[in-house]
Amino acid sequence: MGEQVEAPGRALVALVTGATGGIGAHLCAELAAHGYTVVAADLDGERPPGARHSVMLDLRSGESCRAAVEETVEGFGSLDLLVNNAGVNARGRTEDMPEEVWGGVVDVNLNGTFRMSQAAYRAMARRGGSIVNLASTGGLVAIGGSAIYGVTKAAIIHLTKVLAVEWAAVDIRVNAVAPTIVPSPMTADVLDDAEYMAAKLATIPLGRAVSPREVAAAVRWLASTDAAMVTGHTIAVDGGVSVL
């Protein structure tokens, strides 16, 4: 289930941003295991297991985003799947949030998703493709202390819908995955906080965090031919948080 169908004579090519983080590394491994040629994109340019190639990427730069897509297409002949996984977080009360911190998160999470998607459009427009954005249940429900992260993820969810409508004519599907808390470097600061985690897990009907592997499986399904008529949607991989 969820297998991609390769075009004759070539593997499908996936570009994964934020590829060396907890979710990103699992995305690379999952997609490679299902037949993709995976290009890992990150600030450090490292290549995680499963990735065939790595590129340097700074989401704050349109030039860097375009270069990552161009290097992928020049090296492997196409771009069939873009996974906009990279992101940053800044926790804290809104009244205390420095404007420059707010702007920095917006520039990476929201503007970076826009920049990469725009660059991918130019590579995919001739024969179609798929874009999967990493959102969050923080973009679906209000979580105190996470205003800036939630706002960017809510904006990504809406951007997903708009791009799905605009780009359907060139057969580019755009979807999103919204997990609840996932053990990763981004959440390392709260995973060992017993009080925080007890309160967090109490908001999840299924009672546990989401594994990076579960996020990767949802992304892979959305990119697959099994989801060929799915576009503009956000799959909440959240144990029921967003239905409460």
From TrEMBL:
Q: Which Pfam families match?
A: adh_short_C2 (PF13561)
Superkingdom of this protein's organism: Bacteria
- Alphabetical list of Gene3D superfamilies matching this protein: NAD(P)-binding Rossmann-like Domain
Q: Which enzyme type, at the first EC level? A: oxidoreductase
State the UniProt keywords alphabetically.
Answer: Oxidoreductase
Determine if Oxidoreductase is one of this entry's keywords: yes
Q: Name one GO molecular function term.
A: oxidoreductase activity
Q: What is its EC number?
A: 1.1.1.-
Q: Which InterPro entries match?
A: NAD(P)-bd_dom_sf, Sc_DH/Rdtase_CS, SDR_fam
Q: Record keywords: Oxidoreductase included? A: yes
Q: Which family does it belong to?
A: Belongs to the short-chain dehydrogenases/reductases (SDR) family.
**Name under which the protein is recorded:** SDR family NAD(P)-dependent oxidoreductase
